[in-house]
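Hey, resending since the last one bounced:
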Amino acid sequence: MYKAELKGRYRCRLQMNRLNIPGRIILLQSRLTRSARLSTVKLAYTDYQPVTKNYDRNSSFLILHGLFGSKNNWQLLGRKLADRLNTQVVAIDVRNHGDSPHSSQMTYSLMADDVIALMDSLNLKKCHLLGHSMGGRVAMNLALKMPDRLNSLIIEDVLPDQGPFSSEFFIRCMEAMLKLDMNMGGDGLAHFRQKAMKTLEKDIPGIKIREFLIQNLTKMDDDKMARWRCNVKAIQANWPEIMKGTLPNATQFNRPTCFIGGGKSPYLREGSYTEENKAVILKYFPQAECHVVPAAGHLVHSEQPDVFLERVCTFLRTML
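The structure tokens again:
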């Protein structure tokens, strides 16, 4: 386990355990079955504390990033949310991403179990949960599997059904990432990342997506080779399951739910939540409300952070 402290008034704890030790996981007080607990991994996270330490532990706010993202994507908003909501905010690395352990298994059900195991280790009986994109699918699975563990749910720019987004783009990205020559050739990480940006341009022309992916590049201990923090091979192997995003059947989450989408996002048909979208949402989440941020694309929290922050705080303020 490693701990890191950020300067200033925010205490951030980073917990890592690259070994999946069943004996430790079995000790967790959880409603998961023995077989499920044996499959969980110990997730890395960053813990943002509000200025005042006087808050309800069960009002904690957990955040799940999207595909190829990490908890680091939420540093700025994590700090702001902790202060604005006066509660603990926990940004999480899901399995095969960031500093969390790698695993050959990557179903949404397992990723939801990972989050429950983390909640148990933090002694959180309940929490508020936000998930972006792939993290939103994890959050929806958790809410439908174990609704009594959540006070509320926020889903950023993803729908309960698959939606119109093509998987060909992501497949091309993964192929390009896997064929990248990881020999740093004596260069530092910053210089190697610049070279990687140029190398990946042929297969991934969009500069924004390349910059996003490059954040996953880090160096090996010998300083000679680079590696991807995210487990690209496992993500590629589990891609059909990740794209399908199946939700548990015949279940509902009957607690406050908020869907926030980008008006320019490919996930929202016609730049809004259609009646078809809303019908599917309400099938699983009867108390859901839907909001669109017109000027944002898929990364609503990054492209329009102030608008996103205000929408989240408005939704949660009456419950905290």
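Residues 1-37 have pLDDT under 50 and may be disordered.

Sorry for the duplicate.
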